[in-house]
């Protein structure tokens, strides 16, 4: 799914929309003197949402727009990597990876002056051992920034396969990931259903018209799901039984 193929007729109002979102999330930038803006958690979340919305607009931006936007913001976005909020850091990292993918798509010889300092910063976040941060935040952050670092250094993307019904879709680029994440955030747990039945979403991901599944195929799908669930339940039961035996042994040793 190339960015220049998506609804070019709707890009006439693109620049003002980009500027509107940009005017919001840039308030979270670390200032030139190194000081940090004083914002509350609600405002930071608002700025994070604005950044993600801005990134989504970039996925339908023309190559000429990307040539202007990427150099301008790749010199500023790394400041958001220093934000205290893990969601903002992750949103900034993924947006940086997206921008590198987009600019390299239209200009394979693109040269970024701050490449080495950026890679050092991304590597620090990918191996973060800050004791003051929650373990879950660090684990989530390290996983994301390992992928972001590969994107910046090698132009690589860790592909992911999404299965729904009898079909599957491969998320094989940052453009596709940002688009998929945006729809998933909007429809929630119903994403798989929409991938199967929603004509607009299927069109965006180039899945073709919804597939018609006959009763025999539907029955086979349900049977295979029941079999998987049965195996999972049996494995869970076996693990529980083994743990109980181990606990009984510990009790016996203690009593002895």
TrEMBL record:
Domain of life: Eukaryota
InterPro entries with a match to the protein in the record: IFRD, Interferon-rel_develop_reg_C, Interferon-rel_develop_reg_N
Pfam family membership, one: IFRD
Occurrences of domain Interferon-related developmental regulator N-terminal (ranges): 20-153
Annotated Gene Ontology cellular component terms: nucleus
Domain Interferon-related developmental regulator C-terminal: 198-250
Name the record gives this protein: Interferon-related developmental regulator 1-like
Taxon lineage: Eukaryota, Metazoa, Chordata, Craniata, Vertebrata
